Amino acid sequence: MLDKINKLVEEVKELSAASAEEVEQLRIKYLSKKGSVSQLFEEFKTIANEQKREVGKVLNVLKTQAQEKINELREAQSSTDQSASGMDLSAPGTVLPMGSRHPLSIVKNEIVDIFARLGFNVAVGPEIEDDHHVFTALNFPPEHPARDMQDTFFIATNPDVILRTHTSSVQVRFMEKQQPPLRAIFPGRVFRNEAISARAHCIFHQVEGLYIDKNVSFADLKQTLLYFAKEMFGEETKIRLRPSYFPFTEPSAEMDISCTLCGGKGCNVCKHTGWVEILGCGMVDPNVLESNNINSEEYTGFAFGMGIERITMLKYQIKDIRLFFENDVRFLKQFESAY
Ligand code: DAH
Predict the structure, then answer these.
(1) pLDDT tens track for 287-322
(2) Does the C-beta of 166 come closer than 6 Å to ligand 1?
(3) Fewest Cβ atoms nearer than 10 Å: which of 28, 77, 142, 309?
(4) Using a 6 Å cutoff on CB, does residue 284 contact ligand 1?
């Protein structure tokens, strides 16, 4: 009998199974009531008493080893056998909806990127401002209509606590902190007390630009803006500067680009002129330099300001500014970009 047991011990050591079903078959073969190990226990009852001690010991070892081996095989199967776990590990995963950047962020980042290539840094300033930074230091005469309640949101009863109406206020803060040469752009949110329509909103975004150094000329301004227009709207884009007025620049201009839709032939977007206005600009008024302690005999500079909504609407042919603020996923998910 000892020989039989030892043979089975060897046999059990070598067992293997390719599936959970095969493991079950092995269990039946060795450990079920009719299985070979159980059979040996039956046979054990019949042997001579003086042999029982020795044989019993080996038989128990066989039983334990057989049980352990079957358990081991079963475990190995449950971690690899897909049908045993009830999962199909080759099935494609659930696709989670991916967010995308807001179109205004995409375009803002692109503007920052384009000017970074020309050496412009980025700076930001507060949205809640005072009269000095939004108007006085930018050469607005005291009676200027832009200070009127029509345009400016006043918060609190103190008339000197206002929401900035343009990012030009950051120019002032920048000049307070640093002496020329200065070259930076200032993106941010601005607020105007205006009725909301397809073309206007009371909250919108601007990017302001400022470059002050020795010998900065209007030609530098023009070349910088031409580079920007071509980078943003395509190599074939043309620019046109029209004389204009801003209190903080002299001379001042507004810049048009050739219509992005018809390429200058005339269409609804450009109202059949072939041109669309995208920004205001000019040479920084000496009064602005002086009120910020920059010597206007030594330094000159240019500045420009543009609305991010306007640029975005032209670039993506969006007809209604309100779409930017409605958080409609059907609108937002159309914008995917590297920026
Ligand atoms: N701040 C002006 C606005 O909000 C835009 C602007 C025009 C900014 C000319 C400038 C500039 O820096 O030179 O309409």
Answers:
(1) 999 999 999 999 999 999 999 999 999 999 999 999
(2) yes
(3) 142
(4) no
